[in-house]
Design a protein that fits this description.
Layout lengths: L1 H21 L3 E5 L2 E4 L2 E5 L2 E2 L7 E2 L5 E2 L1 H13 L4 E5 L9 E7 L2 E2 H7 L4 E2 L6 H10 L11 H15 L1
Parallel strand pairs: 3-8
Antiparallel strand pairs: 1-2, 2-3, 4-10, 5-6, 7-8, 8-9
Helix pairs in contact: 3-4
Length: 162
Amino acid sequence: MMKKMMFYILSALICGIFSSAAAAEYTAIDGDSLTQGERRIRLDGIDAPEFIQVCYDINGKEYPCGLKSLQYLESLMQNSIVTCDCLPEPDIYGREMCECFADGVSLNRAMVFAGYAQTYRSDKYTDAEKSAKSEKRGIWQGKFMRPALFRALERVRQNAEK
């Protein structure tokens, strides 16, 4: 009896150690990128403002839309089980291209629907983007620079500083 109990306790401890090591949590690093341990994940089909990017609200007042996008993604993931369905090939930066879910809800679609990201090289979320635009949610409330253009201009600026 004692041997059986020790076996069960030892088994539970070992399984707990291995399952917690294998199930590293997902962390949002900006509005369209996650990490899971060493894994780098890009939310496929969307583009969110860069972390340092600013936008303008309906009154023309500047606000940190990149930070807001990150915070919204974090709120979607909070206290949720996150899973990702990834494409077989990574992007040019070696990131996995995925649709990720928080308790079964698509993070990609939710980010676009809330106006914290826009569709990117895909028409999968155009209905969500149309809704965000018409309701003036998130970045659609005022003026913003497309994140891809912002990144391109940042690269030019950084090269000019060298």
